[in-house]
Amino acid sequence: MKKNIILTTLVGCLAYIILASNASGYGRAGHDATGASGGGTGANGGCSCHSVSSSIAVFVELDSAGIPVTNYHPGASYTIKISGTNNSTATLPKFGFQVSCVAANSNNAGGANTAGSPSCVNAGTWGTLPASTRISTGTFPTSIVEQSAAITATTGTGGTGTTYVESIPWTAPAAGTGAVVIYGVLNAVNNNGSESGDLSNIAQTLFIYEFGHVATCN
Q1: How many CB atoms lie within 10 A of CB 1?
Q2: Cβ contact 91:190 at 8 Å
Q3: Under a CB-based contact definition with an 8 Å cutoff, are residues 18 and 188 in contact?
């Protein structure tokens, strides 16, 4: 129940945190909208709500040479990909996003963390970032990759079936880290200069397990 409350709060505030639909497409820096830092709206708190819709299907995955995987080799190179599809009738030609990856034994998957006092630990390191992306400058401990300007849809012109994809190079953490969790949110925007009409959604958290690592119970 506690986790559901956190996720409901998060989804209700996603779009403004991730990407205000203005001419430049810049997001509101300093907020973790992925939920990895706990508390739903990031360590700095506060938000203004956009429309949220299941019509925007959002997924995160870990790719090895273009193939989705559910395990990682310590120190190996991968790509974390976030993708979305516009299944609505709205015209949404651009998008923004956030992705984060934390150690599973430190994340807030159980709803234990609260805004302002997260206990998450980054897992792995980011590689060279694609154009129009950046590391967020927030004060929360999680390293979050987000858009630095509105990104043009990957396929389509914004209508039904338009897709939004961004891939970020990622190097797996050291041996013994154990499972990691990938978080992601995406906001598809109409670029009309306001938040009106934009649609966002959160990806289901993705657990990735370390090859050869045996989990222990306390």
Answers
A1: 6
A2: yes
A3: no
Residues 6+ apart with CB under 8 A from 96: 18, 19, 25, 27, 146, 147, 150, 151, 186, 187, 189
Could you give phi then psi for residue 11, rounded to 5 degrees? -60, -35
> What's the CA gap between 52 and 198, in Å, rounded?
8
Q: What is the CATH number of domain 2-210?
A: 2.60.40.4060
Which pLDDT does position 119 carry in this prediction?
65
Pairing of strands 180-189, 94-103: antiparallel
Q: Where are the domains of the chain?
A: 2-210
Over the chain (218 residues), the average pLDDT of each successive run of 10 is 44 45 41 71 36 88 97 98 97 95 71 47 94 82 88 97 98 95 94 84 95 63
